[in-house]
Amino acid sequence: MQATHVRYGGTNEEEIALWRQVAKENQAAYASLFKRYSQILYGYGLGICPDETLVEDCIQEFFMRLWARRKSLSEPRSVKAYMLASVRRLILEAVESGHKRTRRYQSSYFYTTTTDLSYEQLLIESQLVEQRNQMLQQYLDQLTNRQREVVYLRFFQNSSFKEISETLNIDLQSVRNLLCRALKKMREASAVMAEVA
């Protein structure tokens, strides 16, 4: 059983090196940033807005703006936090304005996973994943939008507290408080659901 693994993200030094290359008009570095982060941004974006097309369009918009402004790019402390915050802002602006963006690219860019698993294995795995996702969604539904974002960034994107603070534009203590409250709510929801079952 072999799987093709796509590397997401990278160390901050790698990110900064790519960022600098993009500023120098290096198309390969730009493509690498897109490959590394498009799925991360997509997953994060869906946590903010369930409209897949809008999220994809906002990600495309971000990358087009990035390339258009490549010569005047300033270097962020964290490329990942900068990208998450930028896409978040674009999504919130689009949702608030009710503006429908024109679809520029096919969604196939966002889904590139191949495996050598049998049909039965894939079916069983997908059912298990679906069950876990439903349970997790029930827990997450107990949270505020802000708490959900913090949980997603911390546990699904492995963002540091500092990166979360920069992404959401809130102080570090607020990040810690939101995460603490979110985990407490999720534990309480888990206990209640266990009693019902």
- Overall geometric form: globular
The stretches of 5 or more residues where confidence is low (pLDDT under 50) are: 1-8, 100-116
Number of β-strand runs: 0
Rg on CA atoms, Å: 18 Å
Q: Tally the structural domains.
A: 2
- Name of the top-level CATH class of the largest domain: Mainly Alpha
* Structure annotation, total helices: 8
Distance between the termini: 35 Å
Domain RNA polymerase sigma-70 region: 33-97
InterPro entries: RNA_pol_sigma-70-like (IPR039425), RNA_pol_sigma-70_dom (IPR014284), RNA_pol_sigma70_r2 (IPR007627), RNA_pol_sigma70_r4_t2 (IPR013249), RNA_pol_sigma_r2 (IPR013325), RNA_pol_sigma_r3/r4-like (IPR013324), WH-like_DNA-bd_sf (IPR036388)
Family: Belongs to the sigma-70 factor family. ECF subfamily.
GO molecular function: DNA binding; sigma factor activity
